[in-house]
Amino acid sequence: AEQASWRAALASALSRLPDEQREVITRMYVHGETFAVAAASLGIAVGTAKSRGRLALATLRAHLNFEVADA
Asked: Under a CB-based contact definition with an 8 Å cutoff, are residues 45 and 24 in contact?
C-alpha cells in the first residue's frame, strides 16, 4: 500500500513538470540514457539537458517532500 502511494505521488509530481523537463528525466531515469544521449535524442545541447534535469529534480523533491509531509 505504501509503495502504491509513493508511485501515485511520483506520478503526480512528474505530471506537474513542464514537458521539456519531464522528457529529460524520463530519458535518464526510465530509459537509462546519459545527459549526452538524452540531449542528442531531444536535439538540445548537453548543458540544456543538464539544466532541465537539475530543475526537474529540484521540482520533484519539493513536490514529493510536500506530499510526504501531508501523509
From this structure: no
Q: Which three cell numbers stand for residue 28?
A: 535518464
pTM: 0.82
Give burial (CB, 10 Å; 0-12/13-18/19+) of 32: exposed
pLDDT by 10-residue block (mean), the chain, 71 residues: 84 94 95 96 97 96 73 53
Q: Where are the alpha helices (DSSP H) in 1-71?
A: 2-16, 19-25, 35-42, 46-70
Q: CA 63, CA 44: separation in Å to the nearest integer?
A: 26
